Amino acid sequence: MTVENVLLTCKFQAGEDLNTHQYQAIALNDGKVANSGDEAVGILLTKPKSAEHGTVGISGLLKYRAGAAVAVDAKLTATTSGYIITCGSGYYFFGRALEAVTSGSVGLGQFDFSAPCYRVSSC
User: How many CB atoms lie within 10 A of CB 51?
Assistant: First the structure.
């Protein structure tokens, strides 16, 4: 897939060792892995250790680490440990999958963490 991307990023100080959490959702309020879609502020692009500075992608085409199988065009949210999954009813979503991926794999999605939507049912 050929893509052109404009990416909005943000620097932050890691509140824990994030060296093994690249492409997972991050919460900027504490600099740790996000545990839900409403806490997530972006996707970790770098591999900072505790107290080091890292970069999160807030908007644009971003790689993500799937916590379960994701179908193409699925709405995306974060689950515990910052993994990205298909959004169900009662969760905040902030992206769409551009390709299908298996659990644990890295996929590509279109994300916008600036205004996550609450999914009452199907949107």
Answer: 11
CA-CA distance, 20 to 98, in Å (whole number)? 24
Please tell me whether the overall predicted TM-score, pTM, comes out greater than 0.85 for this model.
yes
Terminal Cα distance for the chain, rounded = 26
Burial classification of residue 24, based on how many CB atoms lie within 10 Å of its CB (0-12 exposed, 13-18 middle, 19 or more buried): buried
* pLDDT, mean of residues 48-77: 96
User: What span, in angstroms and rounded, lies between the C-alpha atoms of 117 and 98?
Assistant: 18
Rounded Cα distance between 6 and 59, Å, is 8
In whole angstroms, what is the distance from residue 16 CA to residue 19 CA? 9
